[in-house]
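My current task is to audit a protein record that another person submitted. Please read both lines and tell me whether the tokens look consistent with the sequence. Do not assume that whoever made the record got everything right. I have pasted the whole thing underneath without changing anything:

===
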Amino acid sequence: MKNTIEKLQKTAEPECSNFIVNVKKYFLFLNKKDNSIHQKLAEARIKSNSAVLLEHDLMGEERFMKEAHHMIILEILNDNSPVGHKGECYRFFLSDEGYKNAKLSEKRGEIKIKSHASVFCGKLYPDKKLADRNR
């Protein structure tokens, strides 16, 4: 265990995240007896090879905070970004001020906001123009 921790501390962030994802895959497929909805969703996510979203979980407590009015999913475009490394994807639940800062960061070319949804009392209301554009 100590050896693994020492190796992970020396490993760059994207490689460390990939290692954690692979370990989760191993343990999810090891325990086939659990047929809960969470298990099925995790398996579907692994099969679809979707990118791992870092930071806020979709059902995390940040979503239900009173000041959270925006949910964004973004991709880091360069290493000058205030968070993360190039190529990583993040989900954030933000206040109005945080969303303004994210929009400014997008204008500077540091990030690309892939999707946005308004948040009210924990419910998500996706932007229609972004949904129409992806059709």
